[in-house]
Inverse folding.
C-alpha cells in the first residue's frame, strides 16, 4: 500500500504538472519558463526539477505511467497470449477507462497543437518513443519473445503510426472516434506477422 509520504509526493507532482499545463495552454510551451512554473505552483525551482528532470517532461507528465502500463502488459501476460496482443489488449482496456494517453479526442486539440508548434516537444516525443521501444524490448526479451528488438520496433512503429493519424484528424477539425479501432488494427497486423512468420526465430 502506498504510504503517506508517497501520496504527498505524488500529489505535489500532480499539482506542479497541472499548473504547468495551464500555463502552457495559455501561452504556449516555449514561452513559459521553469521558473515561472515554480512561482505559479508556489514551489522552489529545484523542486520542479526533482519531479521533472526536463521542462518537456512537465508537458508529457503521463509518459512514465504509459510506459509502465505497456511493459507490465508484456511481463504479466497470461500463458498463450502473445506480447503484441497483450499490449493491444491493455491499450483497449485503458481506452475503455478513458485514460488520456490511450484516447484521442477533439477536446485534446489544444494539447496536440502545442506539440505541433514546439520543436522541443517534438524532439522529446521522438525520444520517448525510442525509450518506450527499449523498455518494451527488454520486457519481451525477459519473457522469451523471439527477436524482441525487432518485435518491439514493429510494435511501437505501428502504435505511433495509428496514434499520429488520429492526431492529424483532430488537428484538421475531424473526429477520431475510430482511434481505438485504428490502434487495434495496426497492432493486429504486427501480431499476425510475428506469430506466423518463420523469420522470427532465435
Amino acid at each position: 500500500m502506498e504510504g503517506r509520504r508517497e501520496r504527498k509526493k505524488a500529489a505535489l507532482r500532480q499539482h506542479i504538472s497541472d499548473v504547468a499545463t495551464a500555463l502552457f495552454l495559455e501561452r504556449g510551451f516555449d514561452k513559459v519558463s521553469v521558473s515561472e512554473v515554480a512561482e505559479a505552483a508556489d514551489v522552489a525551482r529545484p523542486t520542479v526539477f526533482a519531479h521533472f528532470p526536463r521542462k518537456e517532461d512537465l508537458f508529457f507528465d503521463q509518459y512514465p505511467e504509459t510506459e509502465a502500463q505497456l511493459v507490465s502488459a508484456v511481463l504479466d501476460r497470461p500463458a498463450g497470449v502473445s506480447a503484441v496482443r497483450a499490449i493491444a489488449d491493455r491499450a483497449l482496456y485503458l481506452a475503455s477507462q478513458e485514460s488520456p494517453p490511450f484516447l484521442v479526442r477533439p477536446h485534446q486539440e489544444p494539447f496536440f497543437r502545442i506539440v505541433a508548434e514546439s520543436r522541443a516537444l517534438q524532439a522529446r516525443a521522438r525520444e520517448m518513443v525510442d525509450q518506450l521501444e527499449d523498455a518494451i524490448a527488454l520486457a519481451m526479451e525477459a519473457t522469451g519473445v523471439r527477436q524482441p528488438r525487432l518485435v518491439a520496433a514493429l510494435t511501437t512503429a505501428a502504435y505511433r503510426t495509428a496514434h499520429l493519424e488520429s492526431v492529424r484528424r483532430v488537428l484538421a477539425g475531424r473526429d477520431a472516434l475510430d482511434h481505438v479501432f485504428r490502434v487495434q488494427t495496426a497492432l493486429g497486423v504486427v501480431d499476425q506477422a510475428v506469430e506466423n512468420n518463420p523469420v522470427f526465430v532465435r
In short: The radius of gyration is 18 Å. The mean pLDDT is 92. The chain is about 70% helix and 0% strand.
